[in-house]
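Reopening closed ticket. The problem is back. First fold of the pair:
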Amino acid sequence: MPGRPYTSLMLLVSLLLLITFSDIAEAAKLRPSDCKPKCTYRCSATSHKKPCMFFCLKCCSKCLCVPPGTEGNKQVCPCYNNWKAKDGRPMCP
């Protein structure tokens, strides 16, 4: 059947997109009660846990989003990514 490889490829691409967007959706749909466990994980790899938790919780409560992982991935949460301190540095860890 000539259409079978194309159908399989489209199914695979669709599945990969679904997995990618489900991670983004999971990061973006937090409730305030979800902030502490998400920030605890987000700050787990740093040696500066207290300031990381303070700013992560502050950012999460405002943005209701914490990027996945222990660093990076901020593009998943635009509010979290774009919030800057007065001196222009990123507010959120």
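Second fold of the pair, where the issue appears:
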Amino acid sequence: MRFLMTTKATDSVPDETLFAEMGKFIEELTASGVLLATGGLEAGGILVASAGDEITVTDGPFAEAKEAVAGFALVEVRSKEEAVELARRFRRIVGDGESVIQQVFN
């Protein structure tokens, strides 16, 4: 089962300890074959919206930047419970904030 795990932006500034712990976590997940892709996302982005025949394109940043996704990980695990446990481990490393887990259907 594949899951997309996303995390929202926070005001906290990462330090060397966080980078080291996250590096170990990513290395472990990569070595085990669980982590398929990971990355950070630009703060602004581009919004493409459609209504009927009209398509509008708006450059960010947007007013609700605190709701924006700041990073992601695509993982392949045996169960939803395993995905939740990985997200728990991630949150313990990065601290306060929110992450969302969504199953990816093929």
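Update: turned out to be a display glitch only; the data is intact. Helices lie at 16-31, 80-94. The radius of gyration is 16 Å. Please close again.
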